[in-house]
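User: Can you fold this complex?
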Amino acid sequence: MMTGAYALHALADGERAAFERHLEACEPCAQETAELSATAARLGLAATETPPAALRERVLHRVSSVRQEPPGVLTAVRAGRAGPRGRLLSRWALAACVALAAALGGTAVWQHQRAEDALREARQAAGERQGTDRIAAVLAAPDARTRSAALGDGAVGTVVVSRSLDRAVFAVSGMAPPGAGKVYQLWFDDRGTMRPAGLMDPGRTAQTVLMSGAVDGASGLGVTVEPSGGSRQPTSEPVAVLRLPA
Amino acid sequence: MREAVYIGRSPSSEPDLQELVGRVALGDEDAFASVYDAVAGSVLGVARAVLRDRAQSEEVAQEVLVEVWRTAPRYRSDRGTALNWILTLAHRRAVDRVRSVEAAAARDHKAALLARTPEFDEVTEQVEARLEREQVRRCLRTLTEVQRQAITLAYYRGLTYRQVAQALALPLGTAKTRLRDGLIRLRDCLGVTA
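Assistant: Here's the predicted assembly.
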């Protein structure tokens, strides 16, 4: 078992990559690795010393000019190794999600539970809200394609696109509230031009939304925080960006 | 520093750092300053333990802290506490640095290595860090000698398990196993949960 060596950063680069691939498929290993990493952190904590005041100034000064990475672009997921299995299982929303996790490899395993939750929520809501039939139609379309990504801060988004219906459904879980008087707005990305695609319910952290309007060849979707009621164009940097599945 | 150590010992205060990092993820520079105050001493301590050299340690600590700012939007709380995330990052960067600057040959000699094994006492004793340090030291004493040496060489010296095996004249598989069973014993002694 490499969990100890891994937690101590005692593997060579190639071995580390191989072990990370293994971790994706081995939940007990992932659990043990998390615990041993937390234990290693205690060794670090025990080495705490007093930093010089000048370091604080340097770091805070530096930070004021360093741009943060966007939350929604998870390279491993965006790389989109959507294999043939996604195709076979896409009729059934939950199955599609499981297939997605499998197709993406284990990087997505931890996401899979979240995405599953979001889609389960979608199905539970099926009897409650108008429009859910159309959501179901997209999820169950024979050509439904799915893509999932971490959106930062614990949120996970999944987009399901049916090219034959030309519609997209966005499911998310773990979203932070957008703030008072604010709302999350969805956008289709038409090669860099953002087209409004509806609003999300600001009161829910997990929800599934039929994106308004046709996909119409859009290459991605974006989520921004907008004033209540939404905007005609994005007024802030996207909090999440996902490429639509091909 | 006091805060960082306190955070490590007391789960009840962890949400504070969690919440601060959440705010940092939204670009809140004031929150970042608070995160800095909570973790900078530990980040620097990790770098110092591994790198020894003060200037290099500060350089690595600075890089790590800026990386915390830069990548906070991607931090996932369901994968571990913010403190673990930051200290893991700090250790990783310190190890990367030591591996890139140190000739392997210089690290192969067991006597030289163990002579450089850090004694916690040599670090300026700090009232705030003492409890954490004493607890870790007490738990390290519950390990077998080989476990303790293996973990110390790997964590505080940044050695790969191959180098640990070489330094302690152990078969590779045994070195791996000692790192794992030693950490497991340490985990249980410290009462760590993921």
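Chain A has two domains: 3-63, 75-243. Chain A touches chain B through 53 residues (CB under 8 Å).
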